[in-house]
């Protein structure tokens, strides 16, 4: 099933796109060295969640953006793993940024989160931007750690009931 936005983007499941094209797009959007970033360590060894991962095609049906979501967990100081969904990367080819493709991808992905039992969503990004449009905040992540360098102000979470979030923990792949 696809959705079309007013910007003439067609949003399709990421599984419908050749993985090599996705990798090329990610290289263009973030550079090939992106694999050394901390976010890659957080989701290392797990596959993205197909139901929450999408591609954006422009009016000419060219791949212009992708979003992937990943099963991760915040392991608290007692060793208990709290499952979360890591949102991102949200990638749009540089010459098409600012046209609404990233917003369409984020909206498609987050609308797929099951409202009956939503897992908290976590991401690394700009708090003002992702907070304004989708309710992400760094208010509850000050005690969280990542397996590599990161800017604590950019570690964001979106959760209907923040009381379920551990105050402290290490973010990493969910292997449950």
Automatic annotation (TrEMBL):
<dbReference type="Pfam" id="PF13527">
    <property type="entry name" value="Acetyltransf_9"/>
</dbReference>
<protein>
    <submittedName>
        <fullName>N-acetyltransferase</fullName>
    </submittedName>
</protein>
<dbReference type="InterPro" id="IPR016181">
    <property type="entry name" value="Acyl_CoA_acyltransferase"/>
</dbReference>
